[in-house]
């Protein structure tokens, strides 16, 4: 089962999630990483859920067109739209205040 490590505001939150988990879907039903994960649309349109991948990015699929459109050059800095990711492997993410300000 994927083990998620989530950094926010200098704090670290960790939890194991089911395979094929979407963190925005979970936060939407008030499960980890709620209430710490910022998100809005859940559809790749707002970039509020953008996080920088610290570890485990090699297991993720390539960014989809929504991520490319929303993140642009931030993709090269390791950012992904968490609402567009279904996790199958361990991952470590940080959501920084500036990550939400697209
Ligand atoms: S929540 Fe809007 S892009 Fe992910």
From TrEMBL:
It comes from the Bacteria. One of its GO terms (molecular function) is 2 iron, 2 sulfur cluster binding. Residues 35-85 form the 2Fe-2S ferredoxin-type domain. Signal peptide: none annotated. This is (2Fe-2S)-binding protein. The lineage of its organism: Bacteria, Pseudomonadati, Pseudomonadota, Betaproteobacteria, Burkholderiales.
